[in-house]
Structure formats: C-alpha cells, structure tokens
Amino acid sequence: MSDSARRTIRTILAVVLALAAGLPLLVHTAGLPDTLPGLGTILAVAAAITRVMALPQVNAWMPSWLKMASPRAPLPDPTAPPVPPVPPIGTAG
Question: H-type helices in the chain, by residue range?
Fold first, then answer.
C-alpha cells in the first residue's frame, strides 16, 4: 500500500472518530448557529486524533497496513548552497 493511501486512510479514520465524538452534540442542536460548537468539536477532535496517530509509539501500535512509511531519503536543506554538478569520468572539465 502506498504512503499516500495510508495517509488518506488515517485521515478518514480520524474524521470518523471525530464525527462519532461530536455526533450527539450535532443531533442535539438543529439550527445552523447552534451547530457551530459541534463543528468546532469535530475539528478539534480530528486534529487531536491526527496528532496522536503521528506519534511513534502509536504508529508502532498500528497494524502494518496503516503504519506510516519511513522517509526514503532526507529532504535537502533549503538554506544550503547548490552543489555544482560533477562531470562524468573521461570528459574534459
């Protein structure tokens, strides 16, 4: 499974759990102005779940198909000066 698919599934899981947590509040409130606290609750819970799922301890607990993949290579430092290209062997420089 690709890393982007894992991220998508993890995000969907976080939103579903957040909706489950905020659903009683949304059902209780019927008007649009009254549902804004419910929407805020859903977003806050989704953000908290997403943050917790990013912890290495929680990632180790996840099933293998849902774990975050380790980065293949470190990202380049944007503040480092560019490296000049090396000419191929056997060519004049």
Answer: 3-28, 32-53, 56-61
Cα gap 85→66, rounded to integer Å: 39
pTM: 0.42
CB 52 within 8 A of CB 17: no
C-alpha 70/C-alpha 79 separation (Å) is: 24
Q: Are 68 and 3 in contact (CB under 8 A)?
A: yes
Q: Using 50, 70 and 90 to split pLDDT, how confident is the model at 34?
A: low
Q: Are 65 and 8 in contact (CB under 8 A)?
A: no
Give the SS3 label for residue 38. helix
Tokens of 39: 């929407």
